[in-house]
Write a structure and sequence with these properties.
It is elongated and about 60 Å long. By secondary structure, the protein is α/β, with parallel strands linked by helices. Helix 1 packs parallel to helix 12. The strands form 2 sheets. Strands 8-7-6-9-10-11-12 form a 7-stranded parallel beta sheet, sandwiched between helices.
């Protein structure tokens, strides 16, 4: 079996060495394609791969068609919208992610964003504190739960909404449960987004929800840009000069947002959520271990194209 690590933006050396050790100790062949600049390089590299590990690299139908031996692809991270799940399923390829491995890194960034915007992006002027403010968490999975835990240390009041998590499980963490999104947005000084980009969620965060936020409200997006209705975001920011938006995924119209709203909006130059040494290593090693368990035991615990 050949396991290929294909990363336009490479893992750290520690992570690569760890992945290689796991793969070779299992009796498989390790290969790496790093810092590639053309899709043709990836197409050539996958032609004899049985397993593929990627980060944000796009595994399209073209890539899958170029890999006749491919049996499993693992996205080292939580989001997996860079994988063509339909093409994987049609070929009988198992697609996985590595949930939880970069959760703390993303959660800490969300808290960082709240402080940054509360302190006027660290420019002169009177800011505000997180203590006593209400944080609304939309989606209470691995990241959302950690955001809640970290926010408690700042003395924030926390509320969450997630139709897929039992209300009692949320309350056990000392977090209030919103009955719906309208209540979450209308009562939260900060909203922290942790929803995936699906057909149901794309463009779902827009004018109707954001206009309900309290004065000085701030939307924090460490999820996906696709969940934001960008035209409606512009509209509500125009009407509500007190609202703020900070994102780890620059909007398609980010230049317009920056021009029109100045310090009220901010986007990281490049996605930073999982950009910590710890998350880099954790996700890479988890991907390698999942591949070994798949080949040795048939384990498909983290399969996302069932």
């Amino acid at each position: 079996m050949k396991v290929l690590v294909a990363t336009e933006k490479p893992f750290s050396k520690v992570a690569v060495d760890g992945i290689k050790k796991i793969v070779e100790e299992a009796g498989y062949t390790f290969a790496a394609l790093e810092k590639y600049t053309a899709v043709s390089e990836l197409l050539d590299a996958v032609k004899d791969a049985d397993a593929l590990i990627v980060r944000s690299d796009k595994v399209t139908k073209e890539v899958i068609d170029a890999a006749p031996s491919l049996k499993i692809v693992v996205r080292a991270g939580a989001g997996y919208d860079n994988l063509d799940l339909k093409a994987c399923t049609e070929r009988g390829i198992v697609a996985m992610n590595t949930p939880g491995q970069n959760s703390n890194a993303v959660a800490e960034l969300a808290i960082c964003f709240m402080i940054y915007m509360s302190r006027n992006r660290l420019t002169p002027g009177t800011g505000s504190e997180l203590k006593g403010k209400t944080l609304g968490i939309q989606a209470y999975g691995n990241v959302g739960r950690l955001v809640a835990s970290h926010a408690k240390g700042f003395g924030m009041n926390i509320m969450a909404f997630d139709p897929f998590v039992p209300a009692e499980a949320i309350r056990q963490d000392g977090v209030a449960v919103a009955k719906d999104l309208n209540e979450l947005y209308s009562k939260s000084d900060f909203i922290s987004l942790h929803i995936p980009a699906t057909e149901q969620t794309k463009g779902s965060i827009g004018y109707a929800l954001l206009k309900q936020m309290p004065k000085g409200g701030c939307l924090v997006n460490t999820a996906r840009k696709e969940v934001i209705n960008e035209e409606e975001l512009v509209k509500v920011l125009e009407e509500r000069e007190d609202l703020k938006y900070i994102t780890d995924i620059a909007a398609t119209n980010q230049a317009l947002l920056d021009e029109k709203f100045g310090k009220r909006v901010f986007a990281t130059p490049k996605k930073m959520g999982a950009e910590t040494a710890e998350a880099n290593i954790n996700a890479g090693l988890a991907a390698a271990n999942q591949i070994v368990k798949f080949f040795k035991e048939g384990c498909t615990k983290f399969q996302v194209n069932k």
